[in-house]
Input
Amino acid sequence: MKNPSSRMHKNSWILVPASFLFAFVLMLLPMPEWTAWLRPAWVLMVLLYWIVMLPNRFGIATAWIVGCLLDIVNGTLLGEHALAMTIAAFIAVRIQIRFRLFPWMQQGFAVLLIVFAYQLVLFCVEGFTGQPPMRWLYWLSSVTSMLFWPWIYSVLRHCQRRLGPLQLSPR
Output
């Protein structure tokens, strides 16, 4: 008879693509026009979680791939989100050891700064292409990302603990 916990360990690799898929779905959900500026950077927050929790498996290359997928899904200039996510991932990789030791408030503030840097890169790229956002509300996504970070962190952490150690390839 197989141990039920070993079955959960075998399926733990599904958590990463499922979390990214869920983040993409949240990103694509329609919102009223007046709340569109408040949409958190769901995909970036999931990427930050995996970079911080498993830095030996996720990093700058993962950010580039996810950013390219985000460009394709959004229909934006190819490489725009990839560049911004790569820079955000670089920051996350540099502070990941300290980040894990931060209390919730400091983690939220670090997420605010990383998402702000991500948005700043997007702002510059869009400005170079002649399409900069015209409203100051563009920057509110950083604040909502900071507010949703504890939720993202706790949900993903709970799922990761429940499924067991992460194995990226099914056996």
